Structure formats: C-alpha cells, structure tokens
C-alpha cells in the first residue's frame, strides 16, 4: 500500500513525527500508520526520542509556567527538521498556534517557538496541502462516517483533506453525519471538569453516528475517538472506531479502538 508521490518535489523531506501522548500510550498503530504514509509520500521520517507531551493539559488548566517548561523541551527536541508532523489536530494546533505566545517576555525563545510553529502540521493536512498527495493505494470494505475534531477543523482548517484521501480508498463508502463539525464533548480537560455536559454532548454525537448507518467511525484526533468509542461501547453499539491514518495506510484490519488486542 502506498501513497501517490508528492506533486511539488521528488526529493524526500526530513520530517519529525510528533507521536502524541495518547498514540504512544494507547494506540501505537496510529504512529506506525503515520510513518508509513509519510515514507510512502517520499519523506525521511525520524521520531525524536526526547520528545515529550505538547503541554496541553497544563495549558488548558492555566498553568503557564509548566507549559513553558514543557514547550522548551519540545522546541529542543524538534530543531533542525524540515517539518514536524502530528497525527492530531489538537497537538498540531498547540505547537503551531499556542507556543509562540508562551514566550512573549523572552525574544530568543519566542523566535525559536515561532520557527517551530511555522514547521508544524497536522498529518493529513501535511500530506495533502504540503506534499500534494491526492490518493492512497489502500482498501477498506465498509461504510464510514467522519468526525471533524474541533482543533483540527477550527485551528488548522482540516476538513476536506481527509475526505479527499478517503475518496481514493477502494471499497470505502463515506456517509456524512448531519453535524460532523459539532464537538464530541471531549475537549481535553473539559470532560473531566464538566462530565455531565460532556456525556450529554457525546450522547448527541453517538446518535448522529448511528443515523448514518455506517459501520466505522473515523477521525483525526485520538482523544475524540477514545471518547466516542467509550460512549458507543456503553450503548452497545457495534460501530468500529479507528484513526483515519490507519485506514489511509491500509492498516484498517487493526482491532478497533476500545477492542481488546488480538493475542
């Protein structure tokens, strides 16, 4: 399975993968899928071993001192790469939109943060918008529906890119929800601070998913996917939940999110 070569250049790009905490701890297959997609598109991919959390939990709770310390580590780890790519709109948005403002009182660090911000991308947007990938050589037999995660959509403009690539997957039928852009209720620490509101929101989302009669739910952010998978399981739904990168990379036969690993 391979992606079509980049339109803009045949030379590989030196790309660093920002794995993200949730991918590292709960769904490593998303990281492997991201590497495969990037390599198939002509990139040389590194996974810097000293990378850490992007700092969203601290940032969202107002702890700027901890966030600055974390950001400094991330900036160090990812210097020297042509691009930094994350299979997550929220982590990609943190690097590209929020890091520079953490260092308004430190011109040298602010410049480094702005440099990183200018090289940071969400995975699918990078493939389509930067590398010019317009199709993948993958197959997935089934009907899928796609959830637009808030950060990817609203901060990074990720909307048509995954749908364009999904349109090239053999055997796949896309069935849109009525409100694919409505938040699933995860919101990082929001679901912990406001569990009743979060549960009501994901309940509305699960009903919208069911209305499509799709057998698989896809999205580009693992936090959203885990939140929706948990709700669907509690309701007894048989809808399978996967990261969009897994399907695009031809790894759709992996156990769905929330399912037990195969022995």
Report on this structure.
It is globular, with a radius of gyration of 18 Å. The protein has helices at about 20-25, 30-40, 55-60, 65-75, 90-100, 105-120, 125-130, 150-155, 160-165, 190-195, 195-210, 220-235, 245-250; strands at about 15, 45, 85, 120, 140-145, 170-175, 215-220, 240-245. It is α/β, with parallel strands linked by helices. The strands form two sheets. The chain has a four-stranded parallel β-sheet, with helices on both faces. A four-stranded parallel β-sheet has the order 6-5-7-8. The model is unreliable at about 1-10 (pLDDT under 50). It has two domains: about 15-130, 3-Layer(aba) Sandwich (Rossmann fold); about 135-250, Rossmann fold (3-Layer(aba) Sandwich), CATH 3.40.50.
Count of DSSP H/I helices: 13
Kindly, what is the distance between the CA atoms of the first and last residues, rounded to a whole number of angstroms? 25 Å
Whole-number radius of gyration?
18 Å
How many beta strands in the DSSP annotation? 8
Strand content: 5-15%
Across the major sheet, the strand order is 2-1-3-4
Question: Level of helix content?
Answer: 40-55%
Biggest β-sheet strands, sense, barrel: 4 strands, parallel
The first-level CATH class of the largest domain is given as Alpha Beta
The helix/strand order is EHHEHHEHHEHEHHEHHEHEH
The CATH architecture of the largest domain can be given as: 3-Layer(aba) Sandwich
How does the overall form come out from the CA principal axes? globular
């Amino acid at each position: 399975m391979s992606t079509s070569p980049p339109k803009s250049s045949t030379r590989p790009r030196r790309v660093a993968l920002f794995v993200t905490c949730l991918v590292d701890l709960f769904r490593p297959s998303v990281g492997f899928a991201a590497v495969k997609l990037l390599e198939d598109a002509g990139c040389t991919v590194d996974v810097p071993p000293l990378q850490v959390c992007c700092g969203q939990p601290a940032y969202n709770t107002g702890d700027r001192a901890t966030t600055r310390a974390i950001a400094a580590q991330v900036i160090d780890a990812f210097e020297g790469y042509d691009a930094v790519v994350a299979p997550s709109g929220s982590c990609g948005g943190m690097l590209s939109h929020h890091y520079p403002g953490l260092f308004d009182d430190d011109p040298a660090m602010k410049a480094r943060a702005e440099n990183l911000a200018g090289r940071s991308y969400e995975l699918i947007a990078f493939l389509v918008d930067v590398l010019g990938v317009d199709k993948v050589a993958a197959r997935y037999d089934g009907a899928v529906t796609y959830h637009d995660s808030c950060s990817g959509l609203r901060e990074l403009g990720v909307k048509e890119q995954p749908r364009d690539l999904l349109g090239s997957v053999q055997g796949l039928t896309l069935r849109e929800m009525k409100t694919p852009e409505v938040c699933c209720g995860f919101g990082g620490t929001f679901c912990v601070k406001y569990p009743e509101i979060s549960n009501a929101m994901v309940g509305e989302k699960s009903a919208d998913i069911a209305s499509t009669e799709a057998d698989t739910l896809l999205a580009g952010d693992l936090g959203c996917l885990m939140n929706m998978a948990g709700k669907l399981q509690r309701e007894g739904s048989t809808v399978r939940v996967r990261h969009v990168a897994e399907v695009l990379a031809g790894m759709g036969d992996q156990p769905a999110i929330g399912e037990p690993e195969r022995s």
